[in-house]
Amino acid sequence: xxxxxxxxxxxxxxxxxxxxxxxxxxxxxxNCVLYGPDKWHLDKCRAAAIFDFHPENGDIVIVHNIKLxxxxxxxxxxxxxxxxxxxxxxxxxxxxxxxxxPRPREHAGIKLILSCQENDLFPIRQLRxxxxxxxxxxxxxxxxYHRIAQDHFICPNFSNRLITSERxxxxxxxxxxxxxxxNQIELSVENAFADGMESVIIYGYLSDPIYYYSxxxxxxxxxxxxxxxxxxxxxxxxxxxxxxxxxxxVAKSWSLIRRECRLTNTRYHGPDPSKGGxxxxxxxxxxxxxxxxx
Length: 294
Fold this sequence. Notes:
Elements: E1 2-6, H1 13-27, E2 32-36, E3 47-49, E4 60-64, H2 77-90, E5 111-116, E6 134-137, H3 140-146, E7 152-154, E8 172-176, H4 185-194, E9 199-203, H5 209-222, E10 227-229, H6 236-241, E11 245-247, H7 257-264, E12 267-269, H8 281-292
Parallel strand pairs: 1-2, 1-4, 2-3, 4-5, 5-6, 6-7, 8-9, 8-11, 9-10, 11-12
């Protein structure tokens, strides 16, 4: 069985990507379950709580956002994740850095894959990456950023199933992304108003409340009645139907936002590079099928 296990399953882009991956595996006849410590993912695909995760002989385990230093930690992931969250709450603690020299596999009978959906938020060099059989990157830029000597493959995330919006509002901008400092939400809002947008709707999971109240809330006073925070919306089609334009201030070449804008006929304003043509779901699945030996 294919088991995807993530260190977080709140409504952010990486979780959406894993939900889509899980659904694609099941839709194409390969049993797959997504395990996570939060609850949002539970009704989005074939899913379970992190406490239900038990690796078994013959499994393919795809790991996301969990710093593993030995295969023994696979059997006590709830405790591992809670420990990492405690460290985050207490402040930044020094990570343990293990040597990544290849050594005999400790997870006999289990194929272990690391799926990387981040750059600086998940520095691969700070874990024992030689533990993994392969590493998945969603974009070439991630492989260049992490620069590790380990067997890896590059494959974009599956798109959400979207269609061209039948009716679009006029000059209603959307700012899409997790509410945290690195995404520079406030700059996207300012850019939208500078371009003559009448109002801005902010769509995204509130990852950093301090950032929201210190940088976003003041904008509501600067532009009274013109900014609305809608949170994370499960219905992506409904979200794109409600806006005419999307603004982003940070380049993420593996983000699905630009592709979703193209699918829904939503104007896109942002620095994300566009390199080559996009892959179809069939082409993306063919890569996963080959890399996992399905």
